């Protein structure tokens, strides 16, 4: 089977939105068809790739660039690369889009109230009580993408639906073949035209929720000094 080359699916979204779950789901299926796959998950990269960095905006930008560098190297070498990282800032995501080229931004969206309810790691509770300062989405803004290739609503869509949307985008962009997807999904999926991106903007997908420029819970009560 011809290998149509590497790509990066960059899963961005707030803490606990479902990035790792979706990355693992997609990765397992790409491996089924013999693709080389790597997951760059910030949770596993952190101890080796940025343990000297602090929890500031500047250092978060550096973290985004370091992940982007590795994703680019892998993508150039035909690896299907899945990045699972909060990556809260548009500027560095756009830098990585330009650097990597074969880049599929996937916004894993979930309302903050639902994330607080879900709180799979207990970190929202700590952020809301002020125990964790500088928490993205609570006391620090998260900047949602305005033109992602894929948007997944993990509060209403199961991981299978998120996976289907990612595979559809990969097919539309020519990064996977119809035959590969037939093996993965059991269906003959058809490529569809992707919305045209102009200067980082694309028309909102049908049924898309209105999206503010930044997300930070109304509850925001900075604990300690405000950082840049
Ligand atoms: N589509 C989904 N529908 C319902 N629950 C989901 C979905 N995706 C993930 N979850 C649940 O949400 C929780 C967080 O998922 P996951 O660890 O994948 O999020 P994450 O975005 O990687 O979080 P983090 O930012 O902490 O790494 C898990 O309990 C997971 O089972
Ligand atoms: Mg994760």
Output the structural class.
Answer: alpha/beta
- Number of H- or I-type helical stretches: 8
Ions, cofactors and other bound molecules = adenosine-5'-triphosphate, magnesium ion
> Roughly what is the average pLDDT, rounded to an integer?
91
Q: Could you say which overall geometry the principal axes of the C-alpha atoms support? A: globular
Radius of gyration computed on alpha carbons: 17 Å
Helix content: 25-40%
The CATH topology label of the domain at 7-110 and 146-185 is Rossmann fold
Major sheet: 5 strands, parallel
Keywords:
228 residues, alpha/beta, Rossmann fold, 39% helix, 12% strand, binds adenosine-5'-triphosphate, binds magnesium ion
Question: How would you portray this structure in words?
Answer:
The chain is of the alpha/beta class and 228 residues long. It has a domain at 7-110 and 146-185: Rossmann fold (3-Layer(aba) Sandwich), CATH 3.40.50. Helices cover 39% and strands 12% of the residues. The protein contains eight helices and five strands; from the N terminus they run βαβααβαβααβαα. It has a five-stranded parallel sheet with strand order 2-3-1-4-5, sandwiched between helices. α3 (57-76) packs parallel to α4. It starts with 6 loop residues before the first strand and ends in a 43-residue tail after the last helix. Bound molecules: adenosine-5'-triphosphate (ATP) and magnesium ion (MG). The site of magnesium ion has 5 residues, from α1.
């Amino acid at each position: 089977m011809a290998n149509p080359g590497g790509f990066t699916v960059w899963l961005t979204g707030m803490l606990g939105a479902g990035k790792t779950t979706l990355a693992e789901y997609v990765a397992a299926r790409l491996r089924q068809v013999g693709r080389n796959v790597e997951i760059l998950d910030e949770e596993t990269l952190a101890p080796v790739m940025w343990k000297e960095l602090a929890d500031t905006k500047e250092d978060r930008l550096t973290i985004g660039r370091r992940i982007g560098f590795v994703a680019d190297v892998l993508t150039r070498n035909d690896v299907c690369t899945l990045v699972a990282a909060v990556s809260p800032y548009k500027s560095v995501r756009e830098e990585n889009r330009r650097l990597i080229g074969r880049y599929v931004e996937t916004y894993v969206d979930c309302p903050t109230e639902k994330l607080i309810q879900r709180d799979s790691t207990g970190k929202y509770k700590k952020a809301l009580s002020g125990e964790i300062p500088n928490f993205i989405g609570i006391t620090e803004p998260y900047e949602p993408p305005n033109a992602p290739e894929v948007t997944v609503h993990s509060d209403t869509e199961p991981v299978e639906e998120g996976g289907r949307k990612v595979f559809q985008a990969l097919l539309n962009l020519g990064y996977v073949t119809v035959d590969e997807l037939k093996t993965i999904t059991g269906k003959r999926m058809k490529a569809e035209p992707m919305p045209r991106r102009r200067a980082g903007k694309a028309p909102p997908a049908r049924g898309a929720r209105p999206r503010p420029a930044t997300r930070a819970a109304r509850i925001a009560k900075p604990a300690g000094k405000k950082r840049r």
